[in-house]
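Cont'd.
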Amino acid sequence: MGLVALLAIQVLYAIASLALISVGLAIIFGMMRVINLAHGEFLMLGGYAAIVATSHGISIWLSMLVVAPIVVGIIGVVVERTIIRFLYGRMIDTMLATWGLSLFLVGLTTAIFGNTTVGISAPLGSFQIGAYRTSAYTLFVIAVAAVVLAAIFAVMRWTRLGLIARGTMQNANMAAALGVNPPRVYAITFGVGAALSGLAGAVLAPVSGVFPTIGVAYIAKSFITVIGGGAAILTGTVSASALFGTINQIATFVTTPVFGEVALLGAAIVLIRLLPQGITGRFFRRGL
Amino acid sequence: MRVNRRTFLQSTAATAAAGMFSSSAWAEDPINVASIHDLSGGLDIYGKPMVDALTLAIEEANAAGGLLGRQIKLINYDTQSNMQLYTQFAQQAALKDKVAVVHGGITSASREVIRPVLGKFKTLYFYNTQYEGGVCDRNQFDTGVTPAQTVEKLVPHAMKKWGKKVYVIAADYNYGQITSQWVKKYVTENGGEVPSIDFFPLDVTNFGPTISKIQAAKPDFVWSALVGGAHISFYRQWAAAGMRKSIPMASTTFAVGNEHIVLSPDECNGMLVCYNYFQDLKNPVNEKFVASFHKRFGADYPNITELAMGTYQGFRLWAEAVKKAGSVDRIKVIDALETGISIDAPSGKVTIDPPTHHCVLDVHIAEVADKKLKVLEDFAQQKPADTAAVCDLIKNPNDNQQYVIKI
């Protein structure tokens, strides 16, 4: 019984962490059609921001939940203003530019922080379920993911900002004709996507540690989740995370982490073959 | 004898030419030594201290007048944790730089990449990392410890302390695969059992399901042969789940990359390791070595690792053999090494074992205690018995393979 409960928490955790690392990418890709290959590096920068802030005496919660998203959000806006905005509608060019950006950020962080793994201990300690123990931080990550997704839903569904953003993404010219300033919307959206990536990187930093090339470990999974999810940003991310997270975690538990990854990738291939438009291309089509 | 202008010019030109020739070809020409290590990327936690130790060893040798009256030049290649670069740089070192010896390779995978290259181009190779044992190649010398020297000692020590049921987790390439089999062999021989061996690719960072699995298996202790920066997160997640206090851990890799300094004491205190060298070893040679190392690289240098010492000792053994051979010629140096060259190193006496090209050396069991490694037990002059069981290069000098343990 304890083991089943523990496994359920692990599965929820896998879903939550997939959703967290993907949602920033989903916003940038889903809403702006920009393939951001530097997404993994945004996560990495979030991790470093949190660790640097913590080592300067800021409380770990403040560093993770406030400092990291703000820092990476600002970096995101700067990147959008200086690079991305010249390349809208040119998918290959944005891929090349963001790939270059990714290499640059890896090089820069290596030069500043050195190429060693840094990290902070996970706070909150552990708790007991039956005969088993697990980290209470796992529950915290699940809670953060739930809050982030709920907040995105609320903003998109019920605020004027969300309405304008959705309208601009659907038809930028029409939105402009109605008095919206699309470049500003793009900059804000990109910044928000980057900030969410920074938050995810910071929240996962105590679990996985941070080193300059850790983005590589995240980026493939987040792309698979976003593509598997399909056009609807929120429902897509949630449904794809739920599917892949469950498969990955259960396969890992039954066999080994290697087969866990294989099962995840296998599921993604089958999914894209059956549903080329992603899950939300067929189901939950009216979702956000 | 009459010296006219013509004969004077002739003789001085000849002398000058001879002088130039000899100086460029012999007296002033440095001996090239190649270092091929990962100085960036995920494995640099191992590579940097190794190159620092090699740098110091070469500077010491040069300050003492060099070798055979020639200075030694270190040619440093950074393989960036990328296997392809190992092939490329090994070829460059052998063909372009024409080095007398290559010191390098960190993971067993990288060693198996450069070993055939250096064999083909007849360039002497020193592999200075503790590894899974079994390489039998006349062109290669191995100065690191192997499972018969460490695992064989640490398994009974840990089983006596904690119990008989051992869960093994290991990195998923030849090192982890083979080492975990050695662990299983020694655990079984000591009357214990290994319920499971789990392998992890080097980039895995999520160990949640594994930690649940280990709890379900209820071992008396866990044996880690995890490798590299990403795997450090296992120890963090293990401690965060509150497991460190209930299930202890022993390792063949922990602290080799200074993990005990990166992690907080709360995450790794009490872990047992077994190596040839620890910075706090008490002997005059080591105290002198640590002092000069700190003088060269700063007193705040985090820790002189097992691999750094392997590299330092590897260079010293090679230098000793060059002196004995009176030449840097590959075959002459190998012959000299095969006489059983011996040095008084900071880790104690280190002697080349001629049939295996491995080393006879001291090993110690230590415990992680507040970012330090506290030595608990010493074992003097351990032979590489694992490799010796299968490899005899004196009888079969043409043997060239890595033997793998069969259970």
